[in-house]
Design brief:
Layout (H helix, E strand, L loop, with lengths): L4 E9 L4 H10 L4 E5 L13 E6 L3 H11 L4 E8 H7 L7 E3 L3 E4 L12 E4 L12 H13 L5 E5 L5 H8 L4 E5 L3 H13 L6 E4 L10 E7 L2 H4 L3 H6 L1 E13 L3 H7 L4 E8 L2 E7 L4
Helix pairs in contact: 4-5
Length: about 280
């Protein structure tokens, strides 16, 4: 049994600070985030707010993030033995229905499916994309509505692979999933196998500018500060009649994002909580 310890930064916030604190931790290099309470790893979350547990790749990156985040929030660092984390990371994940067809569940919890359900088995491990966050659910709702079958999909910043795997299970013909984090690529490949779509999904750390071809659906669930610097690369990967789905956008940031992607046409915008996801198309010639 491994004696390795995993470093985590715990951040205590008021409820209204939760979303911004989570974004800040992603910016600081977190490899995974979970909201915790006194029943899980953090047992003193009795301040009337929330506790965010942020995983980091190593102690150096965790301590660097801690120095930064302490300027804004009450924070500390904890270490969890590898054997404990192997079971604790599962807490809080449960089956959920998204849209009309999708039933998302972790592998350790049986799915009670109904006729017509499209079942997704997703184990996020330390990669973003359990389906619990609004940004992920918004894209899944769009895919549930819009995937008709046969589409080629590009998933940029794939995390757990939940979005590209969902598109394939809904009928897309192929998917390419990319992420700068090698662990996310491993988790995506593992989840693709769990869902029986491994032959149709290629996951890698390939840079977006190096991706060949064009795609009918391009997905990017990242965050606005990153997305505003990506319009040209994403547009080049989108087929002439293709659909670009962007998420990770706080509602007050929507206009900034749309300005960055002009003259693309906004076809749909879904909102949940403080977040929104946008469906864009190429401007008509």
């Amino acid at each position: 049994m491994s004696d390795a310890r995993h470093p985590f930064v715990t951040v205590r916030v008021r409820s209204e600070q939760l979303e911004l604190a989570q974004l800040r931790l992603w910016e600081l290099g977190a490899t995974g985030l979970e909201e915790r309470d006194q029943t899980t790893l953090v047992r003193d979350a009795d301040l009337g707010g929330a506790v965010i547990l942020a995983a980091f790749a190593d102690e150096a990156s965790a301590r660097k993030a801690l120095r930064e985040i302490r300027n804004e929030y009450e924070a500390d660092i904890v270490y969890v033995p590898g054997a404990d984390w192997a079971t604790e990371w599962r807490r809080g994940f449960s089956a959920q229905r998204i849209g009309k067809r999708l039933l998302l569940h972790p592998s350790w919890e049986p799915a009670e499916s109904k006729p017509g359900d499209v079942v997704l088995t997703i184990d996020p491990e330390n990669a973003f994309g359990s389906g619990d966050h609004e940004t992920t659910r918004l894209v899944l709702r769009i895919l549930d509505e819009r995937v008709l079958g046969g589409e080629r999909v590009l998933d940029v910043g794939c995390g757990s692979g939940v979005l590209s795997i969902a598109a394939l299970r809904l009928g897309a013909s192929s998917a390419m999933a990319t992420d700068i984090d090698e662990d996310s690529v491993v988790v995506t490949a593992r989840n693709a196998k769990l869902n029986g779509v491994a032959p149709e999904l290629h996951a890698s750390t390939q840079h977006l500018a190096e991706v060949d071809g064009v795609f009918d659906i391009v997905l990017a669930n990242i965050e606005t500060r990153v997305l505003v610097h990506m319009p040209e690369d994403l547009r080049q990967r989108l087929a002439p009649a293709g659909m670009l789905i962007l998420s990770g956008i706080l509602r007050p940031e929507r206009d900034e994002l749309l300005d960055a992607y002009a003259p693309m046409k906004l076809e749909q915008c879904l909102e949940e909580g403080e977040w929104c996801a946008c469906v864009l198309r190429h401007a008509e010639p």
